[in-house]
Amino acid sequence: MSTALKDLNGTYTIDPAHSELGFVARHAMVTKVRGSFKDIEGTATSGAGLSDAKIDITIQVASVDTRDENRDGHLRTGDFFEVEKFPTMTFHSTDVTAVDDDTLRVVGDLTIKETTKSVTIDFDYNGSATDPFGNERVGFEGSTTITRSDYGINFNAALETGGVLVSDKITLQIEISAIKQA
């Protein structure tokens, strides 16, 4: 039985095995590279209604995976994420509202490499279900676009044909499965 978005309350924990924080970047101006972070954790808490809702997420940046170990290694260096100095990215909500019965607007602070910027993400509510283990699950998916140079991620290379190797605009794609805690 599906719970309405307005009826969600309690504490939910992200199920990392069934959730993904993905990203898409334009490469060499002609194609897209997709990747994700394998190690994410977080919680969402709300009382009656969404007025007091809080969402906190931590991403282990070293878990980046683009299906190319050389590229992943480069992303971990100072050219991009500098994971030895900045091992995590975080997101902390500042406002959570229901746009309609199926859309949750989340505004919050995204911190990458000690730089914090406000982002807005509209999440489609995919409903709730009780899984075979008796867990109440909810599902959401959404996306937003950020500018990586705003976070001090400036590496690039000019192309002979014009343009650059890596786009400054990055699309974040988020799919969340969360389990309600007792």
TrEMBL record:
Q: What is this protein called?
A: Polyisoprenoid-binding protein YceI
Task: Identify the residues that the record assigns to the Lipid/polyisoprenoid-binding YceI-like domain, covering every copy.
Answer: 11-179
A Pfam family recorded for this sequence: YceI
Cite the InterPro entries for this sequence. Lipid/polyisoprenoid-bd_YceI, TTHA0802/YceI-like_sf
- Which family would the database say this protein is a member of? Belongs to the UPF0312 family.
Q: Which residues form the signal peptide?
A: none
